[in-house]
Amino acid sequence: MNITELQEKNFIQRILGPMASTAKAENFEDAVIIDLAEVTGQPDAPYLVYSMDQPYFIHHADTSLDPYRFYGRWIAGTTCNDVIAMGGRCRGFSLALAAPPDTDTADVEAIGHGINDVLHRIGSVYEGGNFHNGDLATVGCAWGTAPRHGIVRRSGARAGDQIVVTGELGFGWLEYLLRRHDLTDLIDHTDKERFRTYKSMPVGAAAAVATVAERGHFTSGMDLSDGLVEFLFTVATRNDTGCMINADMLPVSPATRRNSTLLGRVDPSLKQLCAHPFLLALDPGYDSPMRHAFTIRPENVARAQAEFEGHGAKLHVIGEVTTSPGVRLRTQREILDIPPFWDDNLRQGTTLTAWIQFLKDLDVRG
User: Fold this and answer.
1) What is the pTM of this model?
2) DSSP characters for 94-144?
């Protein structure tokens, strides 16, 4: 059997789980957690959380942005993302870099400047790392501290908790698909600049998340690197609960709604987005690393939203945790069971093909 046959989640749990403690389904979190109280003997010490990632080189839509500088931002943003998701404040970052000997030193400097663009924004520092002679590749490591009484884990949600997300959803997936299929010239002229510059600084509302976590308001949460649907199923399975999402509450921007009709040119089945643009919020995670999702007690929502506003960010309520099992979507006409769907690194076939099948299985009427 090869790893593709298992698919990503089964591979992690069945093959890595017996060896790595945090790869077990019941222990899986966004980052590795070290209890500093056990290490230092100080009962009120925070948790140390750290995460590693291996971001591949991707190109940004803005051709005026140095591709290596954006790569540096992408490395730091995606690696620090998991520390942020756990309510931590990033304190340090290191990089293992492989590059061929004919690499221009200016490109390496641009990667470093890009890393620091993100780290300076979230109050972290670039501490060092390792270098190897080889094909261009990177592994980032980010660490930080999370509050003892407010660390955000994937378990902890209770029925009645509100489900919240830290900004609009679906824009990144739409931008990617329009660019991938050479449709950017057809974007509404009022939105072209926003599409061109979206995610040029790929980091989420780090300070707002950490502040609300320090208040102890989040009951559970995670990053959205594999999409909102994965988060909802994680809440349901880890907490023996269900989720009800309201289609009218999903934060899909006017720009996304205006331009979603173009996806009918990618695949005829996507014409349904003309009537239901909110479906873009159920994407495979292309607003990551800028978005996170959390659960929160109803009485703490207003305070958390005020904290986000104070940091120039938004916190949107999109549904609630329920006692009834399952993950459901409430539209103006019906209540539907949401089928499982998330980005899978070992998926055979394209992510778009899988998403189109997901929409068919969801089967929103009208």
Assistant:
1) 0.95
2) EEEEEE-TT--HHHHHHHHHHHHHHHHHHT-EEEEEEEEESSSEEEEEEEE
Based on its alpha-carbon atoms, the radius of gyration of the chain, rounded to whole angstroms, reads 20
Residue 13 has pLDDT above 80, yes or no: no
Q: CA 68 to CA 104: how far, in whole Å?
A: 11
Task: Please calculate the CA angle 25-89-298 and round it to the nearest 5 degrees.
Answer: 70
pLDDT over 80 (residue 346): no
Give me the residues paired with residue 89 across strands.
Answer: 145
Task: Give the pairing type, strands 335-337 and 326-330.
Answer: antiparallel
Q: Dihedrals φ, ψ of 274, to 5°? A: -60, -40
Q: pLDDT tens digit string along 27-64?
A: 778 789 999 999 999 999 999 999 999 999 999 999 99
CA distance 140 to 97: 9
On whether the CB atoms of residues 205 and 142 are closer than 8 A, the answer is no
- The one-letter amino acid code at 46 reads P
Give the burial class of 9: count Cβ atoms within 10 A of its Cβ; 0-12 exposed, 13-18 middle, 19 or more buried: middle
Ranges assigned E (strand) in the chain: 32-35, 47-53, 89-99, 125-133, 137-146, 162-165, 218-223, 242-246, 292-296, 316-322, 326-330, 335-337
Give 366's pLDDT tier (boundaries 50, 70, 90): low
Q: 301: number of CA atoms within 13 Å, CB side?
A: 16
CA distance 241 to 366: 29
Which one-letter DSSP state was computed for residue 184? Answer: G
Q: What value does the mean pLDDT of the chain take?
A: 94
Arithmetic mean of pLDDT, 70-81: 98
Q: CA-to-CA distance for 185 and 196, rounded, in angstroms?
A: 11
In the chain, DSSP finds a helix count (H) and a strand count (E) of 12, 12
b/e 88-104 (16+ beta carbons within 10 angstroms → b): bbbbebbbebebeeeee
The pLDDT of residue 29 is 84
